[in-house]
What does this fold into?
Amino acid sequence: MSQTTGAGAVAGAESLPPVFDEAGRRELDAVVARYPTKAAALLPALWMVQRKHGWVSPQGMAEVAEALALTPAYVKGVVTFYSMYHQHPVGTHFVQLCTTTPCNVCGAEKVAEAFLRATGAKRLGETSPDGAWTVVEVECLGACGFATPVLLDDDFIESVTPESVPAIVARYR
Amino acid sequence: MVASAVELRLRNSRRDTANQFVSAEAVTSWRRIYNSRAKAQYFLARGFALDRDSTYYFFLTMITLSIDGRAVTVPNGATILDAARGLAIDVPTLCWYPRLPVVGSCRLCLVSVAGAPKLMAACAAQAEEGMAVETETPAAVANRRSVLGLLLERYPTDRLAPDGQDVAVGAAGFDGGGPNEFERLLRRYAVPLRPERHHELALRTGDERPGDPMIRHDMSTCILCTRCVRACADLQVVGVLDVAQRGERAEIVVGGDGDPDHAACTWCGECVRVCPTGAIHEVLPPRRFPKERVAAPERAVRSVCPYCGVGCQVDLHVRENAVVRVTSPWIEEDTPNSGSTCVKGRFGYDFPQHRDRLRAPLIRRGWVKRRDRWRYEGPAAERRRGPWLSIDDEGERPKPRPPERAVGKPLASLSHIPRGPDDVRDRVATPASWYEPFREATWDEAMELVSQELSRIRRERGPDALAVFCSAKCTNEENYVLQRMFRAGFNTNNVDHCTRLCHSSSVAAMQRALNTSAASGSMREVEEVSDVIFVAGANVTEAHPVFGAAVKRAQRRGAKLIVADTRRIELAQRADIHLHLLPGTDVALFNAMLWHIITRDLHDRAFIAGRTHGFDAVRAAVEPYTLQRAQTITGVPAADIAQAAELFARGPRSSTLWAMGLTQHAAGTDIVASLLNLILATGMIGRWGAAMIPIRGQNNVQGASDVGAIPMFYTDYQSVADPAVRRRFATAWRVPEESLSLTPGLRVTEVVAEGSPVRGMYIFGENPIISDPDVAHAEHWFQALEFLAVQDLFLTETARLADVVLPGASYAEKDGTFVNTERRIQRVRKACEPPGEARGDLEILIELSNRAGLPAPFADPREVMEEIAAVTPSWAGVTYERLDMAGLQYPVPDRESGGAAFLFADRFPTGDGRGTMVPVEYLPPSELPNDQYPFMMNTGRQLYHWHTGTMTRRAKGLDAREPVPTVELNPADAAELGVFDGDPVRLVSRRNAILIAARISDRVQRRQLFLPFHFREAAANLLTNPALDPYAKIPEFKCCAVRVEGAA
It folds into this structure.
């Protein structure tokens, strides 16, 4: 709800395509209809942004704030609270691997190194030079019996070893 | 923080001890909360059941508990903290703040309660019958020390002197003024300081607003109390700030991207006010206000803000004869603003110290004194001219592009307005050439010349060849003395002021219908009680921001908001129903609403029968205005009109607010009359919560009218044509009865007109060259006068045409009273002396009156008020002593009366006590768009500027926000014209043309424009239509047809 709406309303950000265009708007309306208040649709709306852009930019936050009649600061507060919303652009493929105690004992760190080697990313959290891969470590994916578990985009892969990594990466490349 | 910016951070001035809010009286008896809205509001917000008769609030049930061994009785529902404050026991708090939602997150106010297994948060725990509370037990103190110790881990302790001494002025960020609220607690609980190198966590960070002209952050001292977040969201209802990165890196963020511009910030400074550590702080103009001076003011003076009609009380901090800072009163004090201010009130105070202030009287070169008489011997051709550009010329000069709104970006990356011959920031100041036609003079010379020439014109051309413009910016006392001088000393009723250009049509319509000229109710009933708020033609959040916030709070409490406006202003975006009408079609809208109410049988038959005349005629008149027809005329969907009408009529308590959007039309009186019909037919007046409020624009436009600065009335709207009234005033002023004219005088718009008999003028603090309709014509008219004297702070566009300019005093340099929009008479107090030889305005007027032969036997404003009270029945009980604190809402007929929060409970002040409904027909605006002039142009205020810009354009922070004139243009129209944001465009009306920069905005509808009227280099009133309302003679500022040409 900007006081002086101008063309510069979201100036500064490199322009990304709007999320809530006609189709996006319809989808959002359907989501909003499931909840008692508009604000309750905030998390799904942010998912829509992340699906479309790959991350949640300030521009995306502003769009969500406008669409759900929230303040941009409130939306930012929520985005920054959840680690699964990306506040920076990430690779086309997003690899989350568990390095918590049981997995660590079973050699998760070696798996991480293998992923970095196979994808060309320099370190955990950094996107590979070709922009295709980002590897991060996470706390417990809930599969301690199948160490090391990896969540690659939306696919859950169990019992990953350093040796199986190149084949996995090749499959998604 | 940006190193180059010189900044000042000040300790928050929250008062020390617990009890600001409960007076000694209340400590002994909680049962009665004496007439205090702030107090009652505080309890109502917490869900207490309060009962109210006209004066007192009562609590319903009470409980008794003991705190530190002392018994206290509090209303059921009060917290332990409330009870402790009642006993003046200081329980430490950080996150708690009066009127903000309780979050209970700082854990500092934990206290021991007998029988409770653990400490309880005093701010959140409800007091219970028989509870035994101890506030400083070893456990409570140990907890506080540990909480404070944890906060210290991220606090810049190296900048605190370890022995608890005050930090030296000049240490980064801590510029004297003693310890802040948090640091005081550190001392109170003797928390040991650890050097920063031993801290385990880095100092906190957050958004810092680099480059911001008024508010900046240094989050290293932030303790995350979130008072700023809640103050912004709950008091101002904006929500710029929030906490992000929750977890160990939690921080305060500004909007989504750090840019307050993108988060709808209004720079009101509420966050600055509540911050306990100065992490959020003001930026003050450093050259004018060295930080040592600001940090240690000599005194603070309670006064009233000089801008709009809300009448906010403010504290002026004074050092070395200058107002160095403005703060707002404590939030729980009973002030009309509940301690809030807007950006203008808090940051627009530096204009009195501007280098342009006039320091000595000026006399136009050419006036010489020969043998005791002043004669003009200068070259006639140059009379009243100068080497300057006229307003007319300035309109055509190219304008720089507005700078990119880029607060929140590094300073180095900001674009700057190009400097050069067209640099507007230099043009804001008085150009040097404007002084050339003048020489400095002594007061004696100036006064002598003014009284000689005014007397000469009166003698040679008759009294009505003189006219005076009083000032809605000046005090009641000054306006009273001025109109008294012209009426009794110069025998003319040609006395008027800018009310003519704002609410004169409201006054005309209200006089006709209800014989009243002011609001029926109060702002607080709108905020607290009204069920429906109908805002018509008023951009409250920008023009009266503090009241705007109250309206938003009312909506948050559950009130329904109906907004009738041609633009999508902030309130329209928030409204439950936005009646998005076409300009000037208001009568059709209100008539249709009334007809719909009648067809649905929602009108108040009992009220109509018992309290009004003329309903049948109105009923017949509105019958043709069906929803369909109204939709055709106004462009508002019929369903919206119907829904709004039903909502308004069902109430049960509906308040009506309106302003210039209705009044500044050639049919202004009709428009207001049709709105009054709607109010009367539904009985939405005369009850607590059903208020009728024409929102007053200037700080004292209500008062100036009340004390007789209008052509047809003496004080209190007593007619000049009534011989009995004349007799009374002649007696009071000790003049022969015949010397007072029975003929009503000319109005502002009739004075400045072709064929006007006026040849000599005295203008007091007004700037008609910018504010009159068709200013190109006005400029020529003023140039042709025989004599013009102007009393002002600066050499304004009008003053430069004068023969004599008398330097007056700003709001901070005088004593007196202002009347706000809810009839509240409040004291204005002198904080400092006028600069140089400039004098107090009252002093000038008294001397002039004496020289003109009308003795003005007043030593000070208090004595003037005594005379006003003697001749003004509804102010009869007013004395300065009684105006302390929140002032008095007149009528105050005697010393016993406490004023009236709302009027007309059982009768209107008419002969038979009934109101009159007047049938009105819709008339289109006098100028409609056509092929040649396809756009409809609207004019009005911006948030950061004030009227002709004389004050705000010389206030550094405000001018930085809106430095250049812009016109709002719909994106679709802009695309059609090939105009981008900031591009120059030429606006051409049937009268004139101006060059200006475009601001692309979807706030305006297609084929409409919005042009702010603050800028002399693109004066809106070069274009406006001088068509006048037949009753009130108010010009049609709101509608004129223009053409837009790309000027690239």
In short: The interface with chain B takes residues 1-13, 58, 61-62, 65, 71-77, 79-81 of chain A (CB under 8 Å). The mean pLDDT of chain A is 88. The longest strand of chain A covers residues 93-98. Residues 93-172 of chain A form a domain with the Glutaredoxin fold (CATH 3.40.30.10).
